[in-house]
């Protein structure tokens, strides 16, 4: 199980690094727009990401 965690973390880092590597100007613009959001909006987006991740995990995990 530990190996799966580290593989998932590695994949997340690869995916998170793609946009700054390929389009740093767009990434910076997007980050500036995110900074303009209110805390509640950021929390809601975070909640949606967590729920989507948990649902995907549940759907893909073996029974």
Description:
The chain is mainly α and 63 residues long. It is 87% helix and 0% strand. The chain is built from three helices and no strands. It has helices at 2-22, 24-35, 39-60. Helix 1 (2-22) crosses helix 2 (24-35). The chain is flat, with a radius of gyration of 15 Å. The two termini are 15 Å apart. The model has no long low-confidence stretch (mean pLDDT 93).
Q: Average the pLDDT over all residues and give the rounded result.
A: 93
Structural class: mainly alpha
The largest pleated sheet is described as: none
- Please report the total strand number as a whole number: 0
Low-confidence stretches: none
- The secondary-structure element order is HHH
Strand content: under 5%
How many helices?
3
Distance between the termini: 15 Å
Rg over alpha carbons = 15 Å
Q: Helix share of residues?
A: over 70%
What would you call the shape? flat
Supply the key terms.
63 residues, transmembrane helix, DUF2065, flat, transmembrane, mainly alpha
Please give a quick description of this structure.
With 63 residues, the chain is an all-alpha fold. The protein is 87% helix and 0% strand. Helix 1 (2-22) packs across helix 2 (24-35).
SSE topology:
Blueprint: H1 2-22, H2 24-35, H3 39-60
Helix pairs in contact: 1-2
């Amino acid at each position: 199980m530990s190996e799966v965690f580290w593989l998932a973390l590695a994949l997340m880092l690869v995916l998170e690094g793609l946009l700054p590597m390929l389009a740093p100007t767009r990434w910076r613009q997007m980050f500036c727009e995110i900074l303009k959001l209110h805390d509640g909006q950021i929390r809601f987006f975070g909640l949606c990401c967590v729920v989507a991740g948990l649902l995907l995990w549940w759907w893909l995990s073996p029974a």
